[in-house]
Write a structure and sequence with these properties.
Blueprint: E1 7-16, E2 19-29, E3 34-38, H1 45-52, E4 60-65, E5 68-69, H2 74-78, E6 81-84, H3 96-105, H4 112-121, H5 137-149, E7 155-158, H6 167-184, E8 187-192, H7 195-201, E9 204-209, E10 212-218, H8 220-226, E11 231-237, H9 240-247, E12 253-256, E13 259-264, H10 266-278, E14 283-289, H11 291-300
Parallel strand pairs: 3-8, 3-9, 6-7, 7-8
Antiparallel strand pairs: 1-2, 1-4, 4-5, 9-10, 11-13, 11-14, 12-13
The structure holds adenosine-5'-triphosphate (ATP).
Pfam families: ABC_tran (PF00005)
Domain ABC transporter: 7-235
Organism: Cohnella pontilimi
Length: 307
């Protein structure tokens, strides 16, 4: 089934003070897709996003949202966008529900039923009547996303949504963004400078470097396929060196950036986990590292700051 993309960037450029910050960026995101925008700090992610959500004018090219040009049909284009670019504004002394109710009143056509729907989607039902001041960062973000999608935009844009979240928070974010994409057909556009997070969250990623797209590729299918063959698997543990010792003679591994990386297939992952736990090592997370994409990202961004 062919469908037209929800958002289409066509040769988008931005020049500031004679300097080209964004250089002919083209990409498309489809309905129901979680799309990652990956690049080191300063590569131009925020600038691109600011143009997508109408906070900054384009120097060249065009952006279409649901078929409407952001340059010539701004109102039609922008009503199809929900976004969290800076920290979402919330009344901390009100409950999550009261915040959404207040926001809904400013959006004609948003019913109380819709509020309940978005609260459920972001998994905030149990805490929605608590004051926002009692919320964790992850919960505030859920509320921000609920607010951003309350008017059923076709496109949701989030700038570095994983910043400040712990691994559990990142997993939850991934789960509800995927749910939103699946249930409502929203096209979700997420920026990050962390490849490992993008791998878990997205269907496709674009890699940005110095204002140019270097590569766009599918990842989710690749990651899911590789869980059945030997892959690099990352174990988040409290004592990686001790964990490596525990596995000696059983599996080959290494310690990288404070995590244990083991080459293992799906069934061995379970037994490695058991072995670590039995040895008194705390395991906080296990995930497949997609080697080729990681290598490629490091290669193309070599010399840049990666976060
Ligand atoms: N208003 C501006 N005037 C001049 N230069 C700017 C302006 N906004 C951004 N830049 C420059 O454009 C480049 C891209 O910045 P941008 O914030 O888009 O990158 P980023 O990928 O989002 O990085 P980060 O993750 O650090 O925010 C940087 O070199 C930045 O210094």
């Amino acid at each position: 089934m062919s469908q037209s993309p929800v958002v289409r960037l066509m040769d988008v450029s931005k020049r500031i003070g004679g300097r080209t910050i964004i250089d002919r960026v083209s990409l498309e995101v489809n309905s129901g897709e979680v799309f990652g925008f990956l690049g080191p700090n300063g590569s131009g992610k925020t600038t691109t996003i600011r143009m997508m959500v109408g906070l900054m004018a384009l120097s060249g090219g065009d952006i279409q949202i649901a078929g409407h040009s952001i340059k010539t049909e701004f109102p039609q284009a922008i009503t199809q966008v929900g976004a969290i670019v800076e920290n979402p504004e919330m009344y901390k002394f009100l409950t999550g529900y009261q915040n959404l109710l207040h926001y809904a009143r400013m959006n004609p056509g948003v019913t109380e039923q819709r509020i309940h729907e978005v609260v459920k989607l972001v998994g905030l039902s149990e805490r929605i009547h608590d004051k926002v001041s009692k919320y964790s960062l992850g919960m505030r973000q859920r509320l921000g996303v609920a607010q951003a999608v309350i008017h059923r935009p076709k496109l949701l844009v989030l700038d570095e949504p994983t910043n400040g979240l712990d691994p559990a928070g990142i997993r939850e974010l991934r789960d509800y963004l995927r749910l939103l994409a699946r249930e409502e057909g929203t096209a979700v556009f997420v920026s990050s400078h962390m490849l490992s997070e993008m791998e878990l969250m997205c269907d496709r990623v674009a890699i940005l470097q110095k204002g140019q797209i270097i590569d766009i590729r599918s990842i989710r299918a690749a990651v899911e396929e590789t869980t059945h063959t030997a892959e690099n698997v990352l174990f988040e543990v409290d004592h990686p060196d001790a964990a490596l010792g525990v596995l000696e003679g059983h599996s080959s591994g290494r310690v990288e950036d404070g995590a244990l990386i083991v080459t293992a297939d799906r069934s061995t992952v379970a037994s490695i986990n058991r072995r670590l736990v039995e040895a008194g090592i705390n395991v906080y997370g296990i995930r497949v590292k997609s080697k080729s994409l990681e290598d490629q990202f490091l290669e193309v961004t070599a010399g840049d700051t990666i976060g």
